[in-house]
Design brief:
two-stranded antiparallel ribbon, about 600 residues, Beta-galactosidase, Chain A, domain 5, 25 strands, 14 helices, Glycosyltransferase, about 20% strand, about 30% helix
């Protein structure tokens, strides 16, 4: 059985990533890309679905782990009855190979290590043919199945019932290196690398990237790590950022809400662009904008909410029978049929991101503004269409208020592009349509009895995505309508102090009820509290959310308060994006108080 989700740490090379358990087992790795089939799939089953365990044989007295500062080089330290040992796990950067390195270093005494390697290609659907392949560099095995091959170099491995094992001892001051390298099966195995050189180069690359971060002192470490997570989830060649490194980790343990997040959502791309710009990563933001422009190029009617890493459009969803699911949560899914959905909000998110780029001095290309104008022409003709909403509802399409507000934002950004930056466009028509959208929202999407915006036209329920209305400037954070909406959200959706997305028991999403609080929503609430003057509430909730990060600073999609466990796919880009925005909002609120007569301590919590 797989470990708790928070017991995994990420290592990656900006092409793919592995999850390394606290017990020393790599239980998830897809090679050579994030969205490739798994080579190690124990995360979604058992050890027989693929894993790479490296740990002491002797009784372990103490285990600790950390990242080398500002990197994704993971160091796990074990103290046993006979000595102390460290394992450094990393994926080398920059040579366009797919390698995993596990370096064992003796610290004191003598520690006997055990290695258990179970290679399972194709989501554990293909047990490879494995042969010993010693060469001048030492013992090695080569495993081949279909298009995939890996070579593993290190201590000699012995075959035992579709498993390869080894036992070796490491004394103080000694180092043992083990490498796994993926390559196309029709090619020769790559030559060994210099582990010391690649470790140094990888360390330098991550630290150089991290050194450019512009981050406030408050929640500095969490923000810094979150920015690193966003970089680790960004594909080096294409610039696409995956929503998470995993598929089918359940939103509800034992349930069916299990989705593949190894694709690129326009929503996440837009938010990432904004965050990178604010924190000093202008070059990356420019690359992000180019990815966005490539993704949405073509007929605006064909714009999707999500794409593959290289802009692939067809992400057909299918169920993987060869993997039983995390702790039995089935089905395991590959692909995501949400690519077929229409979500009107993405046009607003794309326009907001590109407007932010303009405001930060990122110049227009020869086709960037014409492309945006083409998008706006489509929005003009289609803005009244019901959609599937931000949460990718699989029930009937509706007029979701947050989607309509994003449509308003699309027109608003188009207007500002003309009036503030001198670009050409039918500004009077856009102003008229912007006002028309607002009038419709206020007439059909606001409940005057409860003084709150609603989830969709004609409903009485609320939705956490309504918090986005103040983020995009549709309504001020301290506007009475927004404050009334927050009160309704607190009344209807707070569970154990955290915010649910919406009431799944309402049946609006066409799925069985049940999930845990979605972490991004609670971070949105932090941002709303900070921007509306509830600074005590903001910091209290933020401090609690920081406690949900695991020991190396990673967050998944949701959190099960009752059992104290992370839930959903991990690490989740949207959770880390929302963390950064929440921290920025708190920092801005403190700056505002420091330049006024009111002290932060005077920001009293509102009555609940």
């Amino acid at each position: 059985m797989a470990l708790h989700i928070e017991d995994y740490a990420l290592i990656g090379d900006c092409h793919t990533a592995a999850l390394v358990g606290r017990d020393g087992s790599i239980d998830w790795l897809c090679l050579p890309r994030f969205d490739s089939a798994s080579t190690f799939g124990a995360l979604l089953g058992t050890e027989d679905h693929g894993r790479w365990l490296l740990a002491p044989i002797d009784t372990v007295i103490e285990t600790s782990r950390r990242y080398v500062e500002d990197t994704f080089i993971l160091v796990t330290r074990w103290v046993t009855e006979t000595g102390e040992v460290e394992v450094t796990d990393f994926m080398p950067r920059g040579d366009r190979r797919a390698d995993v390195v596990r370096r064992i270093t003796g610290i004191s005494g003598l520690v006997t290590m055990s290695q258990d390697l179970r290679l399972r290609f194709g989501y554990s659907d293909a047990i490879p043919w494995i042969r010993q392949a010693p060469d001048r560099h030492g013992p090695a095995i080569i495993a081949v199945a279909g298009p995939d091959a890996v070579v593993v170099r290190g201590p000699e491995l012995t075959a035992a019932d579709h498993t390869h094992v080894s036992t070796f001892s490491v004394a103080a001051g000694e180092t043992v290196d083990i490498t796994l390298t993926w390559y196309p099966a029709h090619r020769l195995a790559p030559e060994p690398m210099s582990i010391t050189d690649r470790l140094k180069e990888t360390d330098n690359w991550w630290k150089k990237w991290a050194s450019r971060s512009v981050t406030a002192s408050r929640y500095h470490d969490e923000v810094h790590r979150s920015l690193l997570v966003l970089r680790a989830l960004t594909h080096e060649d294409t610039g696409g950022i995956v929503a998470a490194a995993t598929t089918s980790l359940p939103e509800s343990f034992g349930g069916t809400r299990n989705w593949d997040y190894r694709y690129v959502w326009l929503r996440d791309a837009s938010l990432t662009l904004h965050v990178l710009l604010k924190h000093g990563y202008d070059e990356e933001a420019g690359s992000w904008r180019n990815w966005l422009l490539r993704a949405v190029a073509g007929d605006p009617a064909d714009v999707q909410i999500m794409y593959g890493l290289s802009g692939e459009r067809r992400l057909t969803e299918w169920e993987v029978d060869s993997l039983p699911g995390y702790d039995g949560a089935a089905p395991v899914r590959v692909g995501n049929d949400a690519w077929r959905q229409y979500q009107g909000d993405i046009f607003g998110e794309v326009m907001i991101a590109l407007q932010a780029a303009r405001e930060m001095g990122v110049g227009e290309t020869e086709f960037s503004w014409p492309l945006q104008r083409a998008l706006m022409t489509f929005v003009e003709d289609n803005w009244r269409r019901p959609d599937n909403g931000i949460w990718e509802i699989r029930g009937p399409q509706r007029e979701f208020v947050s989607s309509r507000a994003m449509i308003w934002a699309a027109f608003d950004c188009a207007v500002r592009a003309v009036t503030e930056f001198g670009l050409e466009g039918p500004v009077e028509r856009w102003i008229t349509l912007r006002d028309e959208v607002r009038s419709e929202i206020e007439s059909h999407g606001f409940d005057h009895t409860r003084n709150t915006y609603t989830q969709y036209y004609g409903s009485t329920g609320v939705d956490a995505s309504l918090l986005l209305l103040s983020q995009i400037g549709y309504v001020d954070a301290d506007d009475p309508r927004m404050l009334g909406t927050v009160a309704a959200l607190e009344q209807d959706l707070l569970r154990d102090g955290l915010l649910m997305r919406y009431r799944t028991e309402s049946g609006v999403d066409g799925l069985p009820a049940g999930e845990h609080p979605f972490l991004a929503c609670s971070f949105w609430l932090v941002e709303q509290y900070a921007r509306s003057g509830r600074l005590t509430d903001a910091t209290d909730l933020m401090d609690r959310l920081m406690g949900f990060c695991n020991d190396v600073g990673l967050l998944s999609e949701e959190y099960d308060v009752q059992s104290g466990r992370q839930a959903g796919n991990t690490p989740q880009a949207l959770s880390h994006l929302a963390l950064v925005r929440a921290a920025d909002a708190i920092a801005s609120a403190f700056e505002k108080h420091e330049t006024s007569d009111e002290s932060p301590a005077g920001a009293v919590s509102a009555q609940r």
